[in-house]
Design brief:
Layout (H helix, E strand, L loop, with lengths): L3 E7 L8 E6 L7 H11 L4 E5 L8 E6 L4 E2 L3 H13 L7 E6 L2 E8 L2 E5 L5 E4 L2 H10 L7 E8 L5 E5 L2 H6 L9 E6 L8 E6 L13 H13 L7 E5 L7 E7 L5 E5 L1 E8 L5
Parallel strand pairs: 2-3, 4-6, 11-12, 13-14
Antiparallel strand pairs: 1-2, 1-17, 3-4, 4-5, 6-7, 7-8, 8-16, 9-10, 10-11, 12-13, 14-15, 15-16
Helix pairs in contact: 2-5
Length: 276
């Protein structure tokens, strides 16, 4: 059975400037081992597999794999998978519901982009002194440079450090990491983007810095908006340090739901040549 396949650039602001995700449509019949093997072969941050939903409210179900493990949720794969599903003939209704291990994720179109609603945090709150010290050591930071260190985990396991400036975030040169870490800093008032983010996810199998990270942006948005450090809507920037140009649009609806949006573009389209 030839399965439709596409590779989608997500959160980019120009050609191939975002984060790619591989999407296998019509993945019914593929076993978990087959999925993990194919994800390891693509060697992208994530590869997704689209399946029939098991819940009546959902339009489709997705399984999300890094090269080494399955994730309950991830942000740029959510938008990239929805883009591929729509191109593959999915119902282009006003709001789409994705089923994944983390639950049901709402997706909508806004101003020519796709956006997902930020899922609830499964772990939040300030890091312990020991954890904060570990973050400071990993990034070679003076503790006085750190504004805050918080758990912002919506599935992938993020802990995040907040610094005063985007410039300082871009200067970071992390040492060996054994935990998944995000760094955030503010751009000067009046800048097009409000914050700069960087992300490293060795636990999830990423040897290099992640170009643009939807799940981290979703959890950081909840942290910064709820704590009053930012107001929505705002634009976040990510990927600058590794020659990408990710742009993440964050908004909040009247009910308080936080939406994470960005551009999606098909770069490769075809099919798997044989069953995997």
């Amino acid at each position: 059975m030839a399965r439709p396949f596409s590779q989608i650039d997500v959160f980019g602001s120009g050609p191939c400037s975002g984060n790619p995700v591989a999407v296998v449509l019509d993945a019914e019949g593929m076993g978990e081992g087959e999925m993990q093997r194919f994800a390891r072969w693509t060697n992208l941050a994530e590869t997704t597999f689209v399946l029939p939903p098991t819940r009546a409210e959902a339009d489709y179900r997705v399984r999300i794999f890094t090269p080494v493990l399955e994730l309950p949720f991830a942000g740029h794969p959510t938008l990239g998978t929805c883009h591929a599903w729509l191109e593959g003939g999915g119902d282009a209704r006003a709001e789409i519901v994705q089923e994944c291990e983390a639950g049901l994720i709402r997706i909508r179109r806004e101003e020519g982009r796709l956006a997902f609603v930020a899922p609830p945090l499964v772990r939040s709150g300030p890091a312990s002194e020991e954890e904060a010290a570990k973050v400071a050591a990993a990034l070679d930071l003076d503790p006085e440079e750190i504004v805050a260190v918080e758990w912002v985990d919506n599935g992938p396991g993020w802990i995040a450090v907040l610094l005063e400036s985007a410039e300082r975030v871009l200067e970071l040169r992390p040492g060996a990491l054994d935990f998944d870490l995000g760094a955030v800093g503010f751009h000067p008032p009046g800048s097009p983007a409000a914050i700069e983010l960087r992300a490293w996810a060795p636990v999830n199998g990423l040897a290099a810095e992640d170009p643009v990270t939807g799940s981290l942006n979703a959890s950081v948005a909840q942290w910064l908006l709820i704590s009053g450090r930012l107001e929505a809507p705002y634009l976040a920037r990510q990927g600058t340090a590794i020659d990408r140009a990710g742009r993440i649009h964050v908004s909040q609806d009247p009910e308080g739901a936080i939406w994470i949006g960005g551009a999606t573009e098909t770069v490769i389209a075809g099919h798997l040549a044989k069953p995997q």
